[in-house]
Specification:
It is built from 7 helices and 2 strands, in the order H-H-H-H-E-E-H-H-H. It is elongated. It has a two-stranded antiparallel sheet. The chain is mostly helical. Helix content is 58%, strand content 4%.
Length: 168
Amino acid sequence: MTKKATANKLGALGLALVDAMAEGCGDLSPSATAALLTLRHHASLGTTELAGVVGLSQPACTRMVDKLVADGLVSRLPASGRIVPIALTDEGRRLGELIQARRLGVLRDMVEVLDKKDRKDFDRLLDKLLAAAVRDPGHARRICRLCDRRACGEGACPSPMPEPPPAE
């Protein structure tokens, strides 16, 4: 097997997983989905911090947050200085939980085709690939924007993410 063929297969698998995980997210954009899943792990984040995680410019993130507010999925909390923290509403939290459960179900189903030894080997290889993929802490947060951060276990994430600063 050539490196090119292996890389090509990895790309195809990545797209298959992205497509499967996108099903069930309704009309939410990938950025809005990432915002809901990111906010599941933080009491609140400012728009600039959230923009960095979901990969949007600050103005684009503000527009996305406006739509999420209008849809009743997030709310803006009272301002603290110049920062207006954003938090999930109860409806946003419920939708985030459903999306995360769907995402993890798709991924678990994919891993189920591997026997125990293959899963152990695959897990070791995933750790190696993820660690190599991380360019900096901000990039690590972007890579793991859809993760259920509890799933890897405390301190076991192969692309360690610093906690964001609290919304000021």
